[in-house]
């Protein structure tokens, strides 16, 4: 169940009730591709850094350790010791990223595993079966994620096929949720809007899938090569045509600035590998922009990454120490940076929710974006 608490312009803050707990939106989903956040971050850490919902990857868990093994072990929640909501993506994006190894047909996609090269077939039914075995809170529909640079005819044909696949996902999910041995019989299904940067195709697709009455609606196929301006333009055109009484999820986005812009355009859910990936490379987010802790200027810097930050890194360690760990290739350095970045994102989402509920989102967004530019101006 999705209940809007407050709106401020197009920005909205809501409560989304699931079988694994209530999610306050807007929310950032912390990405644990193979049932773990990269950078030696445990689910016990996630509980301490304000994580509301974790995202894992259907394709990767199907390849390793195998979704049937996860089911035998009681499902993903039990497997990774996480009692809050989990969203699993459908594998569609991995099929897009494995372009050289795949063949798309009406029944589904034939491709080779990136791990051992073995042949895999995945269609809508297989994706639903895998996600049902994983027993995630929210399953994503199986779609094709065409390149944003594909031509109009290809995108139109691809979107039509994604719609046909969505109906198959819906039917299969209903069947799976009725089986006696299904772990999570209340698994939800989110649809995915596609259409590249063709707003007419996007809007048409949004109208069609909105009629199908699913639990939530994602906007996919962005952050795959188009400009930020093109992405924002798509959101402005599409979000108004998605159901108002269901959550809206922008897949794979993004930077703190991207999130602020998308919230302003009515988006609820986000996920992105940036905070963990950047953290593993010593790049950390602050309210005054991003810092590269490998820089020599932090060698004698006894300050925390950010003054006043409540994350485990800032509460206990200096920039100088974390820089030393990174330079010495000690895993603790990566771990502390990832913990800080995820805490930063989760805290920013908390502030966004509060600003919307106080009707002060535009002032909050303006001051946040101005703050992010401070380091850029200093370094010029």
Give a description of the structure.
The chain has 380 residues and is α/β, with parallel strands linked by helices. It has 2 domains: 2-272, TIM Barrel, CATH 3.20.20; 279-374, no CATH class. It is 43% helix and 19% strand. An 8-stranded parallel barrel has the order 4-5-6-10-11-12-13-14, surrounded by 4 helices. Helix 7 (152-177) links the parallel strand 10 and strand 11. The chain starts with a strand and ends with a helix. Its cofactor is Zn(2+).
**Low-pLDDT segments, ≥5 res:** none
Biggest sheet, open or closed, and with what strands and sense? Answer: 8 strands, parallel, barrel
CATH fold label of the largest domain: TIM Barrel
Count of individual beta strands? 16
Q: Tell me the span between the first and last alpha carbons.
A: 48 Å
Rounded radius of gyration (Å): 21 Å
Give the overall average pLDDT.
Answer: 95
Number of domains as seen in the coordinates: 2
Given this structure, which CATH class of the largest domain is correct? Answer: Alpha Beta
CATH architecture of the largest domain: Alpha-Beta Barrel
Strand percentage: 15-25%
Outline = globular
**Fraction of residues in H or I helices:** 40-55%
EC number: 2.4.2.29
Subunit structure: Homodimer. Within each dimer, one monomer is responsible for RNA recognition and catalysis, while the other monomer binds to the replacement base PreQ1.
Catalytic activity: 7-aminomethyl-7-carbaguanine + guanosine(34) in tRNA = 7-aminomethyl-7-carbaguanosine(34) in tRNA + guanine
Family: Belongs to the queuine tRNA-ribosyltransferase family.
């Amino acid at each position: 169940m999705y209940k809007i608490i407050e709106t401020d312009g197009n920005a909205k803050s809501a409560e989304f009730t699931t079988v694994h707990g209530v999610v306050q939106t807007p929310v950032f989903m912390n990405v644990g591709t193979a049932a773990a956040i990269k950078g030696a971050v445990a689910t016990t850490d996630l509980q301490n850094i304000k994580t509301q919902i974790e995202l894992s990857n259907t394709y990767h868990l199907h390849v390793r350790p195998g979704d049937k093994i996860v089911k035998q072990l009681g499902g993903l929640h039990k497997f990774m010791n996480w009692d809050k909501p989990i969203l699993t993506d459908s594998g569609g994006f991995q099929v897009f990223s494995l372009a050289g190894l795949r063949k798309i047909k009406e029944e589904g996609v034939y491709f080779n595993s990136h791990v051992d090269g073995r042949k895999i077939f995945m269609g809508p039914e297989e994706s639903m079966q895998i996600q049902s075995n994983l027993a995630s809170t929210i399953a994503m529909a199986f779609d094709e994620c065409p390149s944003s640079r594909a031509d109009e005819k290809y995108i139109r044909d691809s979107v039509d096929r994604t719609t046909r696949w969505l109906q198959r996902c819906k039917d299969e999910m209903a069947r799976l949720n009725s089986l006696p041995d299904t772990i999570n019989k209340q698994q939800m299904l989110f649809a995915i809007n596609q259409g590249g940067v063709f707003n007419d195709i996007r809007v048409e697709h949004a109208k069609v899938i909105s009629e199908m009455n699913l639990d939530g609606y994602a906007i996919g196929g962005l952050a795959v090569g188009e400009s930020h301006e093109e992405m924002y333009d798509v959101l402005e055109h599409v979000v108004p045509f998605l159901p108002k009484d269901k959550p809206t999820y922008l897949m794979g986005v993004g930077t703190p600035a991207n999130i602020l812009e998308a919230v302003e355009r009515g988006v609820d859910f986000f996920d992105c590998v940036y905070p963990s990936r950047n953290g593993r490379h010593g790049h950390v987010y602050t309210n005054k922009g991003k810092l590269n802790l490998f820089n020599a200027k932090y060698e004698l810097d006894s300050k925390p990454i950010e003054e006043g930050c409540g994350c485990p890194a800032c509460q206990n360690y200096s920039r100088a120490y974390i820089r030393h760990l990174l330079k010495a290739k000690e895993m603790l350095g990566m771990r502390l940076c990832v913990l800080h970045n995820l805490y930063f994102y989760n805290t920013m989402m908390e502030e966004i929710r509060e600003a919307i509920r106080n009707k002060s989102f535009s002032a909050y967004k303006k001051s946040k974006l101005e703050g992010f530019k401070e380091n850029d101006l200093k370094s010029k």
